[in-house]
Amino acid sequence: MRNTLAETGAFFPRDRSWHPKAFTPDYKTSVLRSPQKALLSLPNTVSEITGPVFGHDVLGELDDDLIFNYAKPGESAIGQRIIVHGRVLDERGRGVPNILLEFWQANAGGRYRHKKETYLAALDPNFGGCGRTITDDDGYYAFRTIKPGPYPWPNGVNDWRPAHIHFSVFGHGFAQRLITQMYFEGDPLIPICPIVNTIGDPEAISRLTAPLDMNNTIPMDSRAYKFDIVLRGRRSTMFENRKEGN
Amino acid sequence: MAQTLNMLKESASQTAGPYVHIGCTPNFTGIEGVYDEDLGRAMVSDETLGERITVTGRVIDGGGTPLKDAMVEIWQADHAGLYNSPAETRGLADPNFPGWGRQPTHMTTGVFTFETIKPGRVPFNDGRMQAPHITFWIVARGINLGLNTRMYFGDEEAANAEDPVLGRIEHKVRVPTLIAAREGNTYTFDINLQGPDETVFFDI
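Predict the joint structure of the above. Result:
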């Protein structure tokens, strides 16, 4: 960890026209789960600008390798081997170092390992579907997995999710907390997915779509996809209008 | 033309989906052997300072049904009102209290439960003290962007009455949606996503 002072400035306000709205009736589950009253705007206090820190002691040796972290000894998960890598940045373009990233996904056939999952595609006995890592001093991360399959879901009668990996991201302040999904370049299911289309701006969807990255592909082993994640930026504390005591 | 500000846009949120537990609480959903323990499950140990409390509740949809696939995270100060975070500049928090917890809602009842301690007070930006509170972050299938709210303590009437955040709520009838009633050492905090008792959610 770099020996620099932690930043304590307030976060830039969230652009809620860029994020999906809460009420998106084409994604039916949102109808009863979307708050209807106006959100109360709150200036960031110490409760929002602080956040938990996770050290490397929480990580196991195979946490960033979904091909092996659930597999029996000598076996491995079935599917297209890929490396997902990129940087976690903030809106100012600065790398966000030493933060926890968690990811989860379906197996190569589009089946999740979950008690409530009912899709008829087969489970892979060697694939659990979860992983995690911590960004380095420049905000970089990487992990290895198999490419998840698309799968049908009960929304419309014939809705299919594009292949995707879920990401849970911590920042340095709890107000940066974010969950999102990574899609794969060229997937024809992206533009017709009701969950993708909860996002109104096509540019925001593009930023969730990872390109094939041949320069980081490992020949005869794994292809690579690059996925950068941007968290809220924060104000410099210089010139900030604050009274003593905070 | 002016120069460009060169700012990036925050990655757009997407729902945590029905299987958020696979990534965040895998042991809870039966994926065992990958992580020793689900992160955020235990907040207190024998060494933690402060009054032990239980915080429990449900996340209830607009049809009155508790969500059985949600995940709730909380973030709070220690017993003395200090956050266990590098961005805490007022002092060093209790090293035996992380301040952060994560729980799934129960798969059949929808109830979440945190074993934690009662937090101390922390200042607002103008130096006034806020009432003790716990910050909540709620994600689930059907929630497109994580919801932020706060829980206040029903037995802190005087502090709640002068809290600068509660004071910003224009419709006072909504203030009780943020206040958890105490019974013994248990505070009950139901979060209503819609309806006449819709919880006050924050844009933080």
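The beta strands of chain B are 52-60, 71-75, 100-104, 111-117, 133-139, 147-153, 179-183, 186-188, 191-192, 202-203.
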